[in-house]
Design brief:
There is one protein chain. The chain is an alpha/beta fold. The chain is about 35% helix and about 10% strand. The protein has 15 helices and 10 strands. The protein has a 10-stranded mixed sheet with strand order 1-7-6-5-4-3-2-8-9-10, sandwiched between helices. β4, α10 and β5 form a beta-alpha-beta unit. α10 crosses α12. Bound molecules: iron/sulfur cluster. Iron/sulfur cluster (SF4) binds next to loops. The site of iron/sulfur cluster has 12 residues, from loops.
């Protein structure tokens, strides 16, 4: 059995540089003030279970006592998100940030997953060297994995999670902007979620899509790019061109500057740290003035998990308590490392998000992980994520 480096999903940022963040002290003061102003009103604002979470949050943020293993704190990216919010939205955000960060550690479940990841398209126009899109069995159209989501299905998912889930990501296995109905989809999300994120390689951005994104008031737009020179970029992002990515991000910025001056959108260039010649200093120099945040995330070697030998990891995978994926064809899956759906939970056509999250299939997967038997599941047996 080979020994593997563990991929910690809850600490996947290897480097993160944020321009213009408020200090933690300032943000904490704002939180304290809003909490105090609303302390007599909490039962009108939140359910009993969410009031309990909020009191844990406040205790962890402001009390010196009880700094236990599951202590909730605000990382830099969370501070940046809070910085764009006002009033009781901040309290609501904290409740859902706690669900996202602490529930997977304490193995707590409630009716909905902390984050739902929706896949507008499994098709990608790139073939990045570290991605499962290089698996020809996956991308071969005859095998049924490739497609784009119908807008009615998308709306059905949004209707189920609105007011229940605040952390939503539009992207999974493919490039979301491949979907011809992308504009209509994000328009439908407008104003419904506190923390909606889109991941894109930026190659298919055009003026119309920039307007749709900015009008929809999404929280974070992540541009995936891993290098600061054309040669290294196109070596990693096969089929991509750095000059196109740069041009499109500049176009996005000029549209934002001209028509959406008050936009609170957070932009980030995020790269997968795959090779030693990718330097974060170079990334910062190129991208630092174009986006609000520059990041490197750890490489999760997921592109050939079905063929790899089993590893000796026994720790349970936090994603089973954190995220649920709904793919373009309605399949519900617990993660995207399992990009061919061996671990499929069901299909949204006959299983609601809430029922799926507490279904027997999900419970069986969680139980296997908790009892140190992830080796009985493919691809968990060779996956390094915890
Ligand atoms: S394959 Fe298993 S261990 Fe890996 S991310 Fe998915 S659920 Fe977690």
């Amino acid at each position: 059995m080979e020994k593997n480096k563990i991929f910690k999903k809850f600490q996947s940022f290897q480097k993160l540089k944020i321009s213009k963040n408020s200090s933690e002290k300032e943000i904490l003061e704002r939180i304290q003030k809003i909490y105090q102003e609303n302390s007599n009103n909490l039962n009108k604002l939140f359910s009993i279970s969410h009031q309990k979470i909020l009191s844990e949050v406040i205790n962890d943020l402001f009390s010196d006592q009880d700094k236990n293993h599951f202590h909730f704190s605000l990382k830099e990216n969370a501070l940046a998100e809070i910085n764009t919010m006002h009033g009781t939205d901040i309290l609501k955000y904290l409740i859902h940030r706690y669900r996202y960060e602490i529930f997977p550690q304490k193995k707590i479940l409630d009716k909905f997953p902390p984050l739902v990841q929706i896949e507008p398209s499994s098709i990608c126009n790139f073939r990045c060297v570290f991605c499962f899109e290089t698996d020809k069995n996956f991308t071969n159209k005859k095998n049924g994995f490739m497609g784009t989501m119908k807008v009615d299905l998308f709306k059905n998912i949004i209707d189920q999670i609105e007011n229940n889930v605040e952390f939503v990501t539009l992207a999974s296995r493919g490039e979301p902007l491949v979907s011809k109905e992308f504009d209509e989809m994000i328009k439908y999300t407008s104003g419904k979620f506190l923390n909606l994120k889109i991941n894109t390689n930026a190659s298919l951005l055009n003026e119309k899509k920039c307007h749709s994104i900015l009008e929809s008031k999404i929280k974070t737009l992540v541009f995936s790019a891993d290098a600061a020179d054309e040669k290294l970029y196109s070596e990693l992002r096969v089929n991509g061109k750095l000059s196109t990515t740069l041009r499109n991000i500049k176009m996005f910025n000029s549209i934002k500057e001209k028509y959406y001056k008050t936009s609170k959108i957070i932009t980030r260039v995020s790269g997968v740290k795959f090779k030693s010649d990718q330097k974060f200093d170079d990334m910062e120099k190129l991208w630092g003035d174009l986006v609000d945040q520059v990041a490197f995330v750890d490489y999760n070697p997921w592109e050939n998990n079905y063929e790899k030998d089993p590893n000796d990891i026994e720790q349970s995978c936090s994603d089973l308590w954190r995220r649920m994926f709904v793919w373009w064809d309605g399949k519900i899956n617990p993660c995207d490392v399992d990009y061919k759906s061996n671990l499929k939970i069901g299909n949204i056509s006959n299983l609601s998000i809430s029922k799926a999250w507490n279904s027997k299939v999900y419970s069986m997967l969680r139980e296997k992980h908790l009892s140190k038997k992830r080796s009985e599941l493919t691809p968990c047996r060779s996956c390094v994520q915890v």
